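Build the 3D complex.
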Amino acid sequence: MIPIDDTPLCRDGKVLILAYDHGLEHGPVDFADVPESADPERTFEAATHPAVTSVAVQKGVAEAYYPSYEDDVDLLVKLNGTSNLWRGEPDSAVNCTVDYAAELGASSVGFTVYGGSNHEIEMVEEFRDAQEAARRHDLPVVMWSYPRGQGLRNAGDASTIAYGARLALELGADVAKVKHPGSREAMEDAVRMAGRTKVVMSGGSKTTDRQFLESVKQTIDAGGKGLAVGRNVWQRENPTRILDALEAVIFEEAGVEEALSAAGR
Ligand code: FBP
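Done.
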């Protein structure tokens, strides 16, 4: 296990990963409301905000855009990912090796595991290869731990999310990225199940500032390390304002009201 507090993935022991792999995972629909958000430069610019500890992108976006930002932004390369055009049981193609992610300048890597999918066995075997290669490069591993699949009717249940957090510990991830399970207590359970693996909340689809900040606050109060968020930042007209608010909640122990005023409302 890598002590992530000493890596660029953390600032003062907390994590705010700005996720931008949606062009692959969801496609153009995610950029429809804010057309400028299709330009990766806009997200890289947002990632220069001091609250952001890393930007998470796929290999192609890293190759094309990271060289212009390498002095100002820390890079997490997502090693697998699948388009929304795929209609099969949840699975994720391994698109990048750890060696190549390191060559691109990544200081950490990300990997999705769909526990419960009919493809769980292969995904976990692929994760094994990536995790062991990452250890050789001394790169922290963030597991996007999203239990789902046709046999799982309760993917959003607190107990399933806690199981996802536990999978991350058992399989050797340094950070477990899990969906918000709906309450502080349920997030405490996920944090407890993850043991020494750090838990970060996955942002989810865009919601109001207040609802979003409340879920982030619950995560921090539950012992979570922070957040890996995409749409709730770059689908906003002004990503800087929500990042100001997130900085207050995650790094300055502010409450939601205080954070909302930090964001200027
Ligand atoms: P969001 O904060 O926008 O939810 O992004 C987090 C993330 O894990 C992305 O990295 C990924 O593209 C997306 O969610 C996958 O979401 P899902 O598979 O649940 O549709």
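The radius of gyration is 17 Å.
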